Amino acid sequence: MDLVEFLRDRLARDEQIAQACAGAPWKAAPSGTVNTATAEDEGGPAFVATAENEAYAEHIARHDPSRTLRQVAAARQIIDVYEKESWILAQGHRTPEAEAAHAARESVLRLLALPYAAHPAYQEEWRP
């Protein structure tokens, strides 16, 4: 498994989980609970989680499924650009500038993979 495949697999799983939880945005309450921000006329807010304190609840709410889906989409765009530029270089269109830009893009991919470093498929050689 290479770095691109690893990232695409992790992103697909993140997306799958987020879509299973998607709906209304999440909102933290001072009580330490997290609910959906659904309007009362739509059945009211749905319970998401109870946290130990307001700070934990806010953290949970800030990482709601819609945010995860936006992060997945952004990361995929970065990977797509990397793959496009890899293909261009493989076709022989090499310049010092293009190779430097490609190295920078690869560094970005390594940083995107870092949050998944605890995953069993993560390879230490990818660590930035």
Structure commentary:
The structure is a single chain. The protein is mainly alpha-helical and 128 residues long. Helices cover 56% and strands 9% of the residues. The chain contains 4 helices and 3 strands, in the order H-E-E-E-H-H-H. The chain has helices spanning 3-21, 54-62, 65-90, 96-113; strands at 26-28, 33-36, 47-50. It has a 3-stranded antiparallel beta sheet with strand order 1-2-3, with helices on one face. Helix 1 packs antiparallel against helix 3, helix 1 crosses helix 4 and helix 3 runs antiparallel to helix 4 (96-113). The two termini are 18 Å apart. The relative contact order is 0.16. The mean pLDDT is 90.
Annotate the secondary structure layout.
Layout: H1 3-21, E1 26-28, E2 33-36, E3 47-50, H2 54-62, H3 65-90, H4 96-113
Antiparallel strand pairs: 1-2, 2-3
Helix pairs in contact: 1-3, 1-4, 3-4
Write a concise keyword list for the protein shown above.
single chain; 128 residues; mainly alpha; 3-stranded antiparallel sheet; 3 strands; 56% helix; 9% strand
